[in-house]
């Protein structure tokens, strides 16, 4: 037996330790348990596979505008309803991307928006139901640099479009008599994350983003959002809801500088 042969078991053991450490370190570095404590006060999390769906691309084409869709998976026969959905991008600098409150009579079953993703990360959707319980689903997304990516529009263009809103409706496959509507709200706003650098001055651009949005049909709540720096430039929400027969759809948004933006539209004549 040669000297190297005699030491093979020891070398193998050391290599096993060396390769095991990164996996253990990655597992130990999982931010989710801490986020459950910080965002949800350590409340119990139930399996949400039959309650809330979350869809995102596994590998994002542009980390600054990653599409995400949140969808209710509750059976129509289920007497419970979703009260709120919290979107958490675990490894973002500010992990809580948005919290959506759903109107009690609006029956919102689907919400789509665009987010920034700063690192390869798990993304969690946490639904709070009318039974008071939390249900969680997750996906994994490969993207990086989304929170520090330069703005798509220059500062002057962004300022000129600040607070401009558009409301659109989309045809549904259901019968014309159905009260289910699919709509979209778009808001002109730079939604600066505070991590982007001015390419001329080389200074960081202060955080400046839409942090509140309320949508109503007449005065009945449809959907509200508490947003953070992870929501992409020019916030964009597409969603389904059930019409209560209201003739006007209203939106009110606020940003971190105290601006308030309001608009309303004839439900039958949506547009700018």
From TrEMBL:
Q: Which organism is it from?
A: Bradyrhizobium ottawaense
- This protein's name: Sulfur-oxidizing protein SoxY
Q: Which InterPro entries match?
A: Fuse-rel_SoxYZ, Ig-like_fold, Ig_E-set, SoxY, SoxY_sf, SoxZ_dom
Name the source's superkingdom.
Bacteria
The record's keywords, sorted A to Z, are: Signal
Instruction: Give residue ranges for domain Ig-like SoxY.
Output: 37-147
Q: Where is the Sulphur oxidation protein SoxZ domain?
A: 175-265
The signal peptide stretch is 1-25
One of the Pfam families matching this protein, by short name: SoxY
